[in-house]
Design a protein that fits this description.
2 copies of one chain form a homodimer. With about 350 residues, the first copy, chain A, is an alpha/beta fold. Chain A contains 10 helices and 14 strands. The first copy, chain A, has helices at about 5-10, 15-20, 30-40, 70-85, 100-110, 155-165, 185-200, 215-230, 245-260, 290-305; strands at about 60-65, 90-95, 115-120, 135-140, 150, 170-175, 205-210, 230, 235, 240-245, 270-275, 285-290, 315-320, 320-325. In chain A, the strands form 3 sheets. In chain A, strands 2-1-3-4-5-13 form a 6-stranded parallel beta sheet, with helices on both faces. In chain A, helix 4 (about 70-85) links the parallel strand 1 and strand 2 (about 90-95). In chain A, helix 1 (about 5-10) packs across helix 3 (about 30-40) and helix 4 crosses helix 10 (about 290-305). The longest helix of chain A has 16 residues, at about 70-85. Chain A starts with a helix and ends in a 22-residue tail after the last strand. The interface between A and B is large, with 55 and 55 residues.
């Protein structure tokens, strides 16, 4: 186990400088950065008791999300902050951009008692989350140990999408996904979708684009290219496309329309998340709606219970619903009756 | 000036308990909340020197935005966090929901040296920002004293919208706005738009809906109702509508289409912000694009300069551009060539 001397040696500074950094006393920024890097490299754990300090609550929480560009993550952070503020907690936001190093920096803040707990939407293969020695609520992934996992019912979502395609007579469907293949709730979207379609005797396939959760221009071009390659003479190889998120479904729909295909007449598209035009308008595509407010509430509730040593749930799986958004057949003309409630609690 | 004894009396606790709260030592949550309330009610200022503590950098910044539901604010926070992370700073996010009390709680954190500085998108009439005694970068509003104001060139935006309507032959235009009427850069959107149209001899009017920055369902209904009342026998009283944000423009466009009007053939709509479908697709409406990345960079750069006592700018006004998004006449069929760059730095 690393000591404060090891950290000082690694950073090329005195033990006093390391001590100052630990106590949040001013040192030159360059030195502070070297000390923090050394602490993370050596995974140095501050022994707060040895320092004669009492571990105390900071009433701050950190949330790790891939980015705030995907509106689903922005809404999640919005609601998590709103629930936390109501009980006197403040929120650090960390956009990991799928960088495990950035995640580690927050994990270490919790370990050093500078943050009380962590909510993480992470697909990194960091081993820090298994048997976590800090209060952790994970979205979509289960870990060994004391953490809590909050997710929407991905199996239910996959089945709802499959049922819609089966009921409207699809004969060849595909699941197009992007994001981690690590074990977690989100994998059930595709598994259940494909199994349900296969059991109904429908030709079913899948394609995976990248382990990156963040959608970048390269990925968008790849998805567009795949749709183009699957389409010849105004006909697509598939008559039902299920995408792992609404952002992807929107990219797919746009490319189909560019190629002259009519959605939903020629083929149908279903996304996942339940995002609406600028969060106040209609749904972008037919979609599986994740209950984002309820997920935010469950995250905060269980994290605070864990921090305060009260009983909490190890797993919270919340129901989803299908909403027609114009990219599936037989969608109602009327907007979703529950849609209007989305701006209020 | 309030003393620690005043705080203890107001909170109904001992001076020792107040001291513990100030030093971040554990006290019962109920007591902590009462002490924090008393501190804010009395505007008690901790004298860090009298405490024998040295004011030290925390390498944390707080950003106050109305909410993360409006995608413009979510993108701004995304980029601010990205710039800060690159230089080793962490970010607290405060969704004020136009609540001045929530803003004050963060202002006091800066004053107590728990946060190094503040970036604020605020329309509250709080007097705390004038002659601020803490490092402050304000978006859109100028304050007396040492703060920095970062804004897009709202006058240029208003003029670009007016020129588009003038060039395409509009004869009766309206500026529909929502949000604060307090002095600030955003007021120039409407002023310059209306003045430019009037100088060109076009009938020009305006309507203001609410001082709230957050768009709620009541506000959406009011805007929809106004559009309905302005439309009779398939004709609207206006042939050019400029809205103070893309969210409003989108609500207006939707309502016009529900009433059977064709946009842009029957009348044109221009928004403000430059938002794109789920941040990766096309523009929702023709719009004045705010340079959100450059604004994020200017906010962080000037705030850090101010914190480190280096020279900084008191005012940064960044240029905007008009982009046709299908709701104005003569828009190009091709997507905006700069659009693809938006997901990368």
């Amino acid at each position: 186990m690393a000591t404060i001397k090891d950290v000082a040696e690694k950073a090329g500074v005195s033990v006093g400088t390391v001590s100052k950094v630990l106590r949040n006393v001013y040192v030159r920024p360059e030195n502070r950065r070297r000390v923090e890097e050394a602490i993370e490299l050596l995974n140095y754990q501050v022994n707060t008791y040895a320092q004669g300090l009492r571990a105390s609550q900071t009433y701050t929480i950190a949330i790790i999300v891939p980015d705030l560009i995907n509106p689903f993550f922005a809404l999640l952070v919005n609601y998590v902050e709103q629930v936390l503020a109501a009980i006197g907690y403040r929120l650090f936001v960390c956009n990991s951009h799928c960088n495990a190093g950035r995640e580690l920096s927050y994990i270490n803040m919790v370990r050093r008692n500078k943050v009380d707990g962590l909510i993480a939407v992470t697909y990194s293969n960091s081993t820090e989350y298994e048997n976590a020695d800090f209060p952790l609520v994970s979205i979509d992934r289960h870990y060994a140990g004391e953490s809590c996992c909050v997710a929407s019912d991905n199996a239910m979502g996959g089945e709802l999408a499959a049922r819609k395609f089966i009921d409207t007579g699809c004969r060849s469907v595909i699941y197009i996904h992007n994001g981690s293949l690590l074990e977690g709730e989100t994998l059930k979207r595709g598994h259940t979708f494909l199994n349900t379609c296969r059991q109904a005797g429908i030709r079913s396939t899948e394609i995976h684009f990248s382990e990156e959760t963040t959608l970048d221009n390269v990925r968008i071009r790849q998805i567009e290219q795949f749709i183009s390659q699957s389409t010849r003479d105004g006909r697509c190889d598939y008559d039902g496309i299920f995408a792992s998120s609404d952002v992807h479904a929107m990219v797919i729909r746009r490319q189909l329309e560019r190629l002259g295909l009519k959605v939903p007449e020629d083929l149908q598209v279903i996304g996942y998340d339940g995002m609406r035009v600028m969060n106040v308008g209609g749904y972008y595509v037919s979609t599986i709606v994740q209950p984002v407010k309820e997920m935010a509430l469950a995250c905060v509730d269980n994290l605070i219970r864990r921090i305060e040593n009260r009983p909490y749930e190890r797993s919270v799986i919340l129901p989803v619903r299908f909403v027609g958004g114009g990219t599936t057949k037989g969608d109602p003309d009327q907007p979703d009756p529950e849609a209007e409630a989305d701006l209020t609690w």
